[in-house]
Every structure is written in structure tokens, then in C-alpha cells.
Predict the structure.
Amino acid sequence: MLHIVIMTFAALAIFFATVVNMALKKENQKLSIIIVIVAAVIGAFFYSYGYGVKIENEFIVLARTVLSVSGMFIGRWDFTNVDDTELFTNPVIYLIFLIVHFLALYSLANVVMMKLGSSLLRRLRILLLHGNDLTIIFGLSEESIFFANRLRESWKNGEEPASILFVPDETDNALLADLERDGWPYRTDSTARYPRTRFLRSLGIWEGDDNRKITLYALSREENLNRQYTAELLESLQKSEIPAENLSLTIYTTNVADISKMQALKNRYGYTDVNPFDSHSLTARLLTLEYPVYNTIRFNEKGLAEQDVDIVIAGFGSTGQAVLRALTRNGQFEGSKFHAAVFAPEIYSIAGHFFTVYEELCASYSIDFNEYDARSMEASEYVREHATTLKYVVACTGDSERDWEIIRAYEKILGKHCEQILLLICGKGTVTRVGSGNNLDIVTDIWRNETLNASIADRAAKAVNASYYSAEDGTPEELWRSCTPFSRESCRAAADFTRAYCRIAGISEKDAAQGAWDLNDELLENLSKTEHLRWNAFHRSMGWSLMSDEEFSQRAEIYRFERMKYGKPLIRIAKNETDRHHACLVTWEDLQALSDKENAITGKHVDYQQFDRDNVMAVPALLRAFGY
């Protein structure tokens, strides 16, 4: 009896292993198709011959042939209807006919087993999600699958792995087949699509589970679906009492303010790490990280730029606008002048929102907006005239063919000067550096862990934020949790620019991290002035403007009132985050007068110039926190 049981389980194990193996092998699908075609063709020939010999009516011959050939695939044996004809008396033909019947039956069994294997394999993959940290990718597209495969590669390189579950936002059979091919588990049921506590329990996440980290990537192209899914999952996580510090969110959206409501604060449940992004802004950030402006100009030993920053941007849609903001905030250096020329037809018609929101950015910097196509005579003449001063040329019209046409045309105009100029194309989610001479083109995209993963992407920003506090105020994670969305953006921008100070000072990042940051007074002062220029440009690129003297006086009165009534004022005089006004959006030289003016009201000893110096002197500690 025991022997029978063992053999039964062994047979089942072999059967299920075979089924799963067939499901895993894509070539089985191609083989089945070939077998079906071969069996159908040969079967049709044999049966039509047999029936044609025995039956005179051609329509009946055709009908019976079709029925008999169809029957081959379900195991029906119609050979006895034709076996007495002359052809089938030959044993070789008879053997061939048997083989064809077997192949037809095999092809059907193969399809059934692959279907069974695919279902079984998908269930096994979902079962294996239990116990590990969980990553949920909501939204199915070529980009989200590509990103998941990138995550898998990062695990091979030593990063801590997690289980990944896809929740498609729509049914796309071709993309679902890609998931099957790449081995990704997915759920299309309503329980997963509208995540409630039942969904969490089905993944082994029980009430009060504090051991598993849960990361959500909401990557649907439909922003409203991303927000809906993110909110519903958060509600279920809160009901299940999952600790907020274990939650991370990356979401595709242009409405950052709306997503900030889901961010965990000291007294509010939410996702602790939140990385809202739209492909245009993230592409622009990738551009400045991969090809920083500070690498395109020279600096002297005093920390002064010896060249100006001169940029051409072709196209001014969403990507072009994001590129201009990013390059402006990262292109300000003591000793240099910043200039950008934008070429796009009907620029004022398509970018009215930009000129309204970023009015002070446009007014404060030398930016020429030209209502000409980047392929026009006017644009070509401009490029020719600035061939010796240009540092950056970015094509981002939203049309890949047009971008390449523009860059190739500019290459011919610039000639030998191309070697000193960065020629770049920004698509939706990609940055291409166009190689000059024998250099190959280099393509970089946003779909990678270090860019999208909120906890990894913000590692440097958390260190910047923590540098503003003492160790007694809390850990970097705790301090980050109390950051407003704007403060987080500010920290990200500061972190992105940190390495610029090493380049300007002529000190390697490795040496600076090890403490070789002995700056003389003049070098420190010039680096501090650059820091203030960067700070100003960042705020203007985020829609901030200078606080008027009248508003400063009004806020000073509120400060005095709150101090008298509550003992501790709640308002910051110089900063109005609601209306995006700041009194520090002045020149470096005017900062001292502002400090004195504010100190006369508060009785404190604020020194805004010293804040910039402190930020520069914090570079070694920040680099160490970055991993140097």
C-alpha cells in the first residue's frame, strides 16, 4: 500500500513538473503551432483522398473531410471510413496516418497542459510572495515591465531583494504574455484591483505585521487611477495597523500637492517615503545629474567661474519647460553669467501657464524666448553666432525624429566646436547624449531603482535635511517624516548640487569626504555666493518670488502679536510658504541688511550669509552620508 502511495505522489510530482516546465518554455508554443499545421495538412490530404474515392458528391467529401480532420484533434478515429481504399493498404502510409493522428492529439494536449501549467505557475509565484518584503507595481506598460526587470538586475548586484506583484490597470493580453514570459506574478481580480484588507491577507500581510516593508509603484498612465489605488491601499494598510515607517510610495502624477496628503507626518498616518514624479520633470533632473552644468565650464583657484553658461533649448512643451527650470537652477555660479535661448513656434500660446507661474524666473535671468522653429534660419543663425560660447544644446520637441533632425543640423553648423558642446536629446523618460566624432551615443532612462525608489532616491536628500538639525532632534528618517513636500524638494535640489562644490574647489569627492576640505576665506566666500545663487534659482524655478517690504512688515506685526500672546511665535517672518514669497530672494550683498532687519524684530542673531557658508562646510559630512 505504501509503495502505491509513494508511486502515486512521484507520478503527480513528475506530471506537475512537466506541466510547469512546458509553461515556462516559450518554444513549446511555437512547436504546437507547427504540429497543428502539419497534422491538419496531411490529415486533410489523406481524408479527402479516401472520401473522394468512395463518395462522388464533392460537397459531402469536403464536409466529411473537415469533420474528420477536426476529430483528429480530439482523439476521434475516422480511419475506418477510408481504410479500405487502395492507398491505405500500404503499411508505410498506414503508419504515417497513425503518426499524424497522434501528433494532432498531442498538439491539443500540449495546449491544455501549457494552459494548466501557466495557471499553476502563476499561483505558485503568488504563493512565494508570502514572507518577503513586498513591492506592488500598479499599472501595466512596457515601461513598468522594463523597470521590474531592472529591479531584478539590481538584486543580482547585491541590493536587498523583495517580492514583486503586478496589478494591471487594464487588460492587455500582449503585455500579460510578457509578464508570463519574464516570470512575474500578477493579479487581475477585483480584490487586487480595489485593494482592501482581504487583498493584504491574501499576500500574507496580517494585522500589526511590522516585519515586512511594503513599496508601491503606482505607474499607470492614468493619474487618477494612480491616486485612487494609492489612497485605497493606504486605507487598508491603516486598518491592518501596518507601521507607517514600513511604507514607501513612488507615484506618477503631476499633482504633487494632492499626493502630499498621503505623506506620513508625526501625527498623520501615511507613506513615509513618497516620491511623486512626472516623466518630464524626472527626465530633466536626470539630465542635470548625468550631465551637470558645472562640468561644462572652468573655475579658477578662487572658486570663480571663468566661462559663462550658454544654452539652447529646442522645443518648449512639458519636457522643454522642465529642462529650462532644471538647467536654470543648476547653472548659477559666482563669476559667470547665465543665458538660455529657447526656440519653439507659438511659444506664448502653448506655455502660458509657465510664464504666469514662473514669472520671476523669466524676469530674473537672461532667457530669450523665440517664436521660431528650432530648424528655422533664425535659430540656425543664432547657433552659428554662439558656436564658441555654447555649452549645452537640448532638443526636446516631443517628436524624436524632429529632435534628431535638429541635432544633426546643428552638428553641421557647429563643426569642430561640437567637441566642446553637450548635444542632448530629451524624450519622455530618456536622455540621449549624441556622440561627436567617433564617440557613440549614450542613452540613459529614468526607469531604474536609484531614480524611482523613494527610499533610495531620497537617501542623499535625507542627509541634507538632517544637516540642518542636531543629533538630539531625531534620526534622519524621523526628521524626514516631518518635512513638508516643498522642503523635501529643496533638500533634493541641494543634494543634487553637492558635488558641484568639489568640482569648483578642485578637490576630489573622495578626498573631500575624508576631510580634505580646508578652504581659504576667499574660496569659501565664493562657494557660499554660488550656494546663494543656486538657492535663489531653485526657489524661482519652483514659482517663488521676492517678498515685498509691505508683506515683510505685516508678517513682522503678526510675529510680535504671537510672541506676546503665545510666548512663542508660530510664523516665520521672511518665509511665506502658502503664497511662495521669500525675503531672501535678494543678492548676496543684501543678505546682511536683511539679517539685521529681521534680528531687530526677533532679538535673535540670524545670519543668512552664514547659512550659505555652513551649507558649503557641510559638504564632507554630506558626501560621507551619500556613501563616499
Notes: Residues 453-626 form one domain.
